[in-house]
Amino acid sequence: MKVWKTAKFLKKDKNIELITRSYINYIYKYGPINDIIRKYNINPSDVYKLNQYTANRIAGLLILYLAKDKKRLNDIVLKYDTSDLLVSDITPEIEGYIER
Predict the structure, then answer these.
(1) How far apart, in whole angstroms, are the C-alpha atoms of residue 31 and residue 25?
(2) Are 51 and 27 a contacting pair, CB within 8 Å?
(3) What is the pLDDT of residues 44-66, one digit of tens each?
(4) Total domain count, the chain
(5) Is the per-residue pLDDT at 7 higher than 70?
(6) Per its UniProt entry, which superkingdom is the organism in (predicted)?
(7) 19: number of Cβ within 10 Å
(8) Residue 49 forms part of a structural domain
(9) For residues 20 and 59, is the Cβ–Cβ distance under 8 A?
(10) Residue 38 falls within a domain, yes or no?
């Protein structure tokens, strides 16, 4: 029987941590999340919990991606592909240097 289980990796990988921290800053640092935090006076410990939860999930996805574990990545897509998505249209947004 297939059982859905969350796994935690105890071995620290500094590259995964660096990439994850960078992604969290990219996603949250200068976006509307700071305005929302101020507007609703969200407790700093709650903001920390949200950031930590997101960082752990991003790190997990990075590990699966780097391990080329397409099956488990696909399992996540299938499990969380629900109709109750809280956004309408998704427009990919990226930053970075472009060689000219």
Answers:
(1) 9
(2) no
(3) 999 999 889 999 999 999 999 98
(4) 1
(5) no
(6) Bacteria
(7) 15
(8) yes
(9) yes
(10) yes
